[in-house]
Amino acid sequence: MVDGTRHVLGVVGAVGTGAMGGFFLAFSTIAMSGLRRIAPPEGLRAMQAINQSANSSPVLLVSLMGTGVVCAAAVVPSIGRLDEAASVYQLVAAGLYLVGTLGLTIVFHVPRNNDLDLLDAASPASIGAWRDYARTWTAGNHVRAVSSLLATIAFVLSIRAE
Q1: What's the chain's average pLDDT?
Q2: Are 20 and 105 in contact (CB under 8 A)?
Q3: How far, in Å, CA of 5 to CA of 132, rounded?
Q4: How many Å apart are CA 141 and CA 14, to the nearest integer?
Q5: What is the distance between the alpha carbons of residues 29 and 118, in angstroms, rounded to a whole number?
Q6: For residue range 90-141, what is the model confidence (pLDDT) as tens digits?
Q7: pLDDT mean over 34-45
Q8: Residues 6 or more apart from 37 whose CB is under 8 A from it?
Q9: Beta-carbon-side half-sphere exposure of residue 126 (alpha carbons within 13 Å)
């Protein structure tokens, strides 16, 4: 891989993972905190509406998946250059994002969002499900935020190591 390519992947990767990490951190600490403070039926309805908006947001999809593509692109050429610190940092960054952010989104958050969308907010039985969702989903979202932000640090370190 040309060093210029590695540099571009590092910069774009740092920007993408940093943006996603900031998004997840803000959502966990501000949005979910606010949703958990209102009456459960309203919080549940609001989260259902947020999930519908997220599912139809091209900006979120491009940001989340595009960053994944950049991370995947950084893996292939870096594997052959493990003697270089910049390549190792890019592999670490890519792994953190692909597993801790994108993988967690696919295997943990999406199924929970789909289950939440099936709940009737007016049903008293849904209150417990909403509270459990809000607690576990937020904990998982903290993991996505931390994974993304650690990936950002690793991408920045890869640039510094060039």
Answers
A1: 96
A2: no
A3: 44
A4: 19
A5: 25
A6: 999 999 999 999 999 999 999 999 999 999 999 999 999 999 999 999 999 9
A7: 97
A8: 43
A9: 17
Distance, in Å, from the CA atom of 144 to the CA atom of 19, rounded to the nearest integer, reads 12
Domain that holds residue 10: 3-160
Who contacts 115 (Cβ-Cβ below 8 Å, separation ≥6)?
Answer: 129, 133
| Residue 108 to residues 11, 104, 114, Cα–Cα distance (Å) | 28, 5, 11
Instruction: Write down the pLDDT at residue 80.
Output: 86
Q: What is the pLDDT of residue 1?
A: 45
Phi, psi dihedral angles at 149 (to 5 degrees) = -70, -35
CB atoms within 10 A of CB 23: 17
* pTM tops 0.90, yes or no: yes
What whole-number distance in Å separates Cα of residue 91 and Cα of residue 158? 9
123 close to 80: Cβ distance less than 8 angstroms: no
CB-CB neighbours of 114 under 10 Å = 11
The alpha-carbon radius of gyration of the chain (Å, integer) is 18
Six-digit token string for 54: 């997220």
Q: Alpha-carbon distance 57 to 98, whole Å?
A: 20
**Residues 67, 51: Cα–Cα separation, whole Å:** 20
Overall number of domains in the chain = 1
